[in-house]
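Input record (one chain):
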Amino acid sequence: QVQLVESGGGLVQAGGSLRLSCTASGIIFSFKSMGWYRQAPGKQRELVADITSGGSTNYLDSVKGRFTISRDNAKNTAYLQMNSLKPEDTAVYYCKGVTPGSIMIDYWGQGTQVTVSS
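The corresponding structure, as predicted from the sequence alone:
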Protein backbone atom coordinates (compact mmCIF):
# COMPACT_ATOMS: atom_id res chain seq x y z
CA GLN A 1 0.00 0.00 0.00
CA VAL A 2 2.97 2.29 0.57
CA GLN A 3 4.11 3.95 -2.61
CA LEU A 4 6.77 6.54 -3.38
CA VAL A 5 6.42 8.46 -6.62
CA GLU A 6 9.26 10.55 -8.00
CA SER A 7 9.09 13.39 -10.47
CA GLY A 8 11.12 16.31 -11.73
CA GLY A 9 13.81 14.58 -13.73
CA GLY A 10 14.69 15.56 -17.24
CA LEU A 11 17.33 16.93 -19.55
CA VAL A 12 19.27 20.01 -18.53
CA GLN A 13 22.44 21.73 -19.67
CA ALA A 14 25.54 21.80 -17.50
CA GLY A 15 25.25 24.55 -14.94
CA GLY A 16 21.49 24.32 -14.86
CA SER A 17 19.14 23.27 -12.10
CA LEU A 18 16.47 20.68 -11.45
CA ARG A 19 14.19 20.02 -8.51
CA LEU A 20 13.21 16.43 -7.81
CA SER A 21 10.26 15.51 -5.67
CA CYS A 22 9.22 12.29 -4.00
CA THR A 23 5.72 11.95 -2.63
CA ALA A 24 4.67 9.06 -0.42
CA SER A 25 1.15 7.71 -0.26
CA GLY A 26 -0.48 5.03 1.82
CA ILE A 27 1.36 5.94 5.00
CA ILE A 28 0.10 7.16 8.35
CA PHE A 29 3.54 7.87 9.72
CA SER A 30 6.51 10.05 8.99
CA PHE A 31 9.54 8.26 7.58
CA LYS A 32 12.45 8.03 9.97
CA SER A 33 14.64 9.17 7.12
CA MET A 34 14.29 9.90 3.45
CA GLY A 35 17.06 9.87 0.94
CA TRP A 36 18.01 10.25 -2.66
CA TYR A 37 20.23 7.72 -4.39
CA ARG A 38 21.50 7.62 -7.92
CA GLN A 39 22.82 5.00 -10.28
CA ALA A 40 24.68 5.65 -13.50
CA PRO A 41 25.13 2.97 -16.17
CA GLY A 42 27.77 0.46 -15.15
CA LYS A 43 28.09 1.89 -11.67
CA GLN A 44 26.81 1.00 -8.22
CA ARG A 45 23.95 2.87 -6.66
CA GLU A 46 25.21 5.58 -4.33
CA LEU A 47 23.69 7.75 -1.67
CA VAL A 48 23.36 11.35 -2.81
CA ALA A 49 21.69 12.87 0.23
CA ASP A 50 19.42 11.92 3.07
CA ILE A 51 17.47 13.67 5.78
CA THR A 52 16.19 12.37 9.09
CA SER A 53 12.87 13.10 10.72
CA GLY A 54 14.76 15.51 12.95
CA GLY A 55 16.13 17.43 9.99
CA SER A 56 19.71 16.22 10.02
CA THR A 57 21.19 15.97 6.54
CA ASN A 58 24.01 14.09 4.92
CA TYR A 59 25.46 14.57 1.44
CA LEU A 60 27.72 12.83 -0.99
CA ASP A 61 30.96 14.82 -1.05
CA SER A 62 30.72 15.56 -4.76
CA VAL A 63 27.30 17.21 -4.44
CA LYS A 64 27.78 19.08 -1.18
CA GLY A 65 27.22 22.77 -1.72
CA ARG A 66 25.32 22.18 -4.95
CA PHE A 67 22.41 19.96 -3.86
CA THR A 68 19.95 20.54 -1.04
CA ILE A 69 17.63 17.94 0.40
CA SER A 70 14.48 18.93 2.24
CA ARG A 71 11.20 17.42 3.30
CA ASP A 72 7.66 18.53 3.95
CA ASN A 73 6.11 16.13 6.42
CA ALA A 74 2.62 17.56 5.96
CA LYS A 75 2.81 16.67 2.27
CA ASN A 76 4.74 13.42 2.80
CA THR A 77 7.20 14.74 0.28
CA ALA A 78 10.97 14.96 -0.02
CA TYR A 79 12.78 17.23 -2.41
CA LEU A 80 16.20 17.42 -3.94
CA GLN A 81 17.18 20.81 -5.29
CA MET A 82 20.07 20.34 -7.69
CA ASN A 83 22.05 23.38 -8.79
CA SER A 84 25.19 23.78 -10.87
CA LEU A 85 24.59 20.42 -12.46
CA LYS A 86 27.47 18.61 -14.10
CA PRO A 87 27.50 15.86 -16.73
CA GLU A 88 28.73 13.44 -14.08
CA ASP A 89 25.45 13.97 -12.23
CA THR A 90 23.69 12.08 -15.01
CA ALA A 91 21.98 9.04 -13.52
CA VAL A 92 18.68 7.56 -12.51
CA TYR A 93 17.74 9.10 -9.19
CA TYR A 94 15.80 7.02 -6.67
CA CYS A 95 13.94 8.09 -3.56
CA LYS A 96 13.99 5.95 -0.43
CA GLY A 97 11.97 6.17 2.74
CA VAL A 98 12.76 4.29 5.94
CA THR A 99 9.96 3.44 8.36
CA PRO A 100 10.20 4.63 11.94
CA GLY A 101 10.44 2.37 14.93
CA SER A 102 12.74 -0.47 15.82
CA ILE A 103 11.90 -2.47 12.70
CA MET A 104 13.05 -0.34 9.79
CA ILE A 105 11.74 -1.09 6.33
CA ASP A 106 12.97 0.54 3.15
CA TYR A 107 10.57 1.74 0.49
CA TRP A 108 11.84 2.80 -2.91
CA GLY A 109 10.48 4.93 -5.69
CA GLN A 110 10.62 3.92 -9.33
CA GLY A 111 13.41 6.30 -10.22
CA THR A 112 13.57 9.37 -12.41
CA GLN A 113 16.15 10.03 -15.11
CA VAL A 114 18.39 13.06 -14.83
CA THR A 115 20.54 13.84 -17.85
CA VAL A 116 23.01 16.70 -17.87
CA SER A 117 24.45 17.67 -21.22
CA SER A 118 27.86 19.25 -21.62
